[in-house]
């Protein structure tokens, strides 16, 4: 009996030991599993944080660059006008626009004068042939006189003759003198009566066409003088030196007007042959 009791006691002790051992093993398994999980989480989290950290770093660098750029602009006193090219600022200035308008006016005057000469060179008889005539009637507001259309009517007869009829008889002699003073080639006024002047227009000859072209060339020189005069006045007002960086923009305006003037003269040369 004593032996059986001792075996029973040993069996109970060994059973309890097995239970303890099993519980310890279970605890170790759970701890290792937890360690594995923690290890996976440990490796997963740093990767995510590194990406976010890289993005944050880029944003921070970008903010620093913007701060440096804005501070440099403030230090230099940059304004919105500084972002506009110098050539655009020049052409938009008030003085530049005024000079450009005056130069275009001189160019338009020359274009009209050449149009009259071209009409005569082609043999067409129109009242525009007498456009250069100015009549110095007593009391005229302009020292050069008034236009012929203001004191008389101009008609065309049979396609070869101009008829000038004055509104008032006492102005006839002033009109006749004004036609002579205009010095229009091949235009000679002939008095018909106390109010009418006849002007026969002969067909243009080679000599006549050459004379018309010579007149146009002389007028072109006058126009060139006016263009250069307005250009020089612009440079003086804007205080622009010849060797300055802005001079090319101002020079381009003069070059363009002179080129347009040359085109008008070349066109007339082709017309007159």
Low-confidence stretches: 4-8, 40-45
Largest beta sheet: strand ordering: 3-4-6-5
**Averaging pLDDT over every residue, what do you get?**
78
The major pleated sheet works out as: 4 strands, antiparallel
Beta-strand percentage?
A: 5-15%
Helical segment tally? 6
Q: How many whole angstroms does the radius of gyration measure? A: 50 Å
Percent helix range: 55-70%
Count of extended strands: 6
The end-to-end span amounts to 155 Å
Overall geometry: elongated
> Which sequence of SSEs, written as H and E, runs from N to C?
HHHEEEEHEEHH
Q: What class, by secondary structure content?
A: alpha+beta
Topology:
Elements: H1 2-76, H2 86-91, H3 94-121, E1 134-135, E2 146-147, E3 152-157, E4 161-166, H4 172-182, E5 190-191, E6 196-200, H5 206-238, H6 247-272
Antiparallel strand pairs: 1-2, 3-4, 4-6, 5-6
Would you mind describing this structure in some detail?
- The protein is α+β, with helices and mostly antiparallel strands.
- It is about 65% helix and about 10% strand.
- It is built from six helices and six strands; from the N terminus they run αααββββαββαα.
- The chain has a four-stranded antiparallel sheet, with helices on one face. Strands 1-2 form a two-stranded antiparallel ribbon.
- A hairpin with a 3-residue loop joins β3 and β4 (about 160-165).
- α5 runs antiparallel to α6.
- The chain is elongated.
- About 15% of the residues are buried.
- The model is unreliable at about 5-10 and about 40-45 (pLDDT under 50).
Notable features of this structure?
single chain, 273 residues, alpha+beta, 4-stranded antiparallel beta sheet, two-stranded antiparallel sheet, 6 helices, 6 strands
């Amino acid at each position: 009996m004593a032996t059986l009791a001792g075996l029973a006691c040993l069996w109970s002790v060994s059973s309890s030991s097995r239970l303890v051992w099993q519980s310890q093993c279970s605890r170790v398994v759970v701890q290792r599993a937890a360690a594995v999980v923690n290890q996976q989480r440990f490796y997963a989290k740093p990767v995510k944080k590194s990406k976010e950290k890289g993005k944050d770093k880029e944003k921070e660098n970008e903010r620093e660059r913007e701060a440096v750029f804005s501070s440099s602009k403030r230090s230099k006193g940059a304004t919105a006008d500084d972002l506009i090219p110098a050539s655009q600022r020049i052409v938009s200035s008030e003085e530049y626009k005024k000079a450009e308008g005056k130069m275009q006016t001189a160019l338009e005057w020359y274009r009209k004068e050449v149009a009259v000469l071209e009409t005569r060179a082609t043999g067409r008889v129109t009242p525009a042939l007498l456009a250069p005539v100015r009549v110095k009637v007593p009391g005229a507001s302009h020292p050069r006189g008034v236009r012929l259309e203001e004191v008389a009517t101009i008609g065309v007869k049979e396609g070869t003759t101009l008829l000038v009829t004055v509104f008032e008889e006492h102005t006839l002699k002033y009109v006749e003198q004004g036609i002579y003073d205009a010095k229009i080639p091949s235009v000679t006024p002939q008095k018909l009566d106390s109010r009418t002047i006849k002007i026969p227009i002969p067909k243009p000859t080679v000599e006549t066409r050459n004379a018309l072209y010579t007149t146009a060339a002389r007028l072109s020189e006058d126009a060139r003088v006016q263009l250069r005069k307005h250009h020089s006045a612009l440079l003086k007002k804007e205080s622009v030196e010849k060797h300055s960086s802005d001079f090319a923009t101002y020079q381009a305006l003069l070059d363009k007007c002179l080129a347009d003037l040359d085109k008008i003269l070349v066109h007339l040369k082709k017309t007159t042959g």
